[in-house]
Amino acid sequence: MATRWGLCGAGKISHDFSVAMKTLPPGDHQIAVIASRSLERAKEFAKTHGIPKAYGSYVELANDPDIDIVYLGVLHTEHWRVGLLFLKAGKNVLCEKPFAMNSGQVKDLVAAAKKSNVFLMEAIWSRCFPVHAEVRRLLAEKAVGEVKLVKAYFGSPQLHIPRSVEKELGGGALLDIGVYCLQFVLMVFNGERPESIQATGVLLDTGVDESVVVVMKFSRNRIAFCAFSIAARLPNDAVISGTEGSIKVLGPMHCPTTLMVNDKETKYPLPEPSLPLHFTNSTGLRYEAEEVRQCLLKGLKESPRMPLAESVLLTEIMDEIRKQVGVAFSQDSQ
Prior knowledge:
Blueprint: E1 3-8, H1 12-21, E2 29-35, H2 39-49, E3 53-55, H3 58-62, E4 69-72, H4 79-88, E5 92-96, H5 103-116, E6 120-123, H6 130-140, E7 147-155, H7 162-165, H8 173-188, E8 196-203, E9 209-218, E10 222-229, E11 238-242, E12 245-249, E13 258-261, E14 264-267, H9 285-297, H10 308-325
Parallel strand pairs: 1-2, 1-4, 2-3, 4-5, 5-6, 7-10
Antiparallel strand pairs: 7-11, 8-9, 9-10, 11-12, 12-13, 13-14
C-alpha cells in the first residue's frame, strides 16, 4: 500500500515536496490531497501536480479519513496552531522546520502527538540525506578518532524576502537557516545538551537576527562553532575535526551531495526534477518522505533520525541564542 500524503499549504516548499515525490515509486507514495486557505490556490496546485483532491481549509484535511500523514508546509508562525489541529484530530504529522516559534510550543506539539498516539517528526530533511547517514556511520566507527571541533556555516542573502525579515512572519537567520547548523552539531554529538552556549549577533531594524555566531562547549572538551546570516553568502559547509582526521560536508551542507573524508571525495547525486524547483537540491526531500514511510510501516511514533527529544533540545538552544542576541517574538509571551 502506498503512503497517502495530505499536503497542508500550497506554497513553495509544498511545490518542491510534490516534485520530489515524483522521483519515488508511485506504489510507495501518493499525494492524495492538497489543502490551502484558498480553494482557488489549492485547485491550481492540484492541477500542476496531478493531485486528486483539493480543499480550501485545513479543517477539511484534518477530517479526511483517507490520508496517512500530513505534511505541514505553512509559515513558521502557524506550525503550532495548525500542527495542534492535525494532531488532536489523530493525524500523523511531518512538520517543516523550525518545528515552532519556541520550545514551549514544541513541547505542546510533542505532548499532543503522545496523547493522540500518532507519529510526529520535525522535517529536518538534512538528517535523511545519504551524506548525513554516512557521517553518522563514520562517527560510530571512530573514523576520525575523537571529535574535537565541529564547524558549520550557512549564509544566504535573503533580505529581499519578507518571511526572512519580518518579525510577524517568524523571520531571522536563526529560525530559517541557523537551525541547520545547530542540528548538524547535535547530530555529531548524539543529541547531547551543550554545557555552555555563547551567541553574538546583529539585528535588523525589524528586530530579527541578521547574522549570528554561536560557540557551544560540550562534555569532554569538545567545541562547536556555527555562523549563519541572511545578509551574506557563507561557505555553507560543515567540518568535523577529530584527533585522527576530518570529515567535510561540502556546501550546501543542509542538503549535501558531496562528502570529503580525509581528502577523499564521494558524490551522492540527486535525481533530476520534473518541474523547476524553488530551493536548492529539493528533490532530496524524497529521502525524508521515504524515512517517514519506513517509520509508519514499522509503527513508530517518531523518527530515530530526528527524535522528538532532540527537536525539543534544538529549540531550547535556539531560545537561549535568541535571548542572548536579543530577539523576542510575540509567541514568547503567550
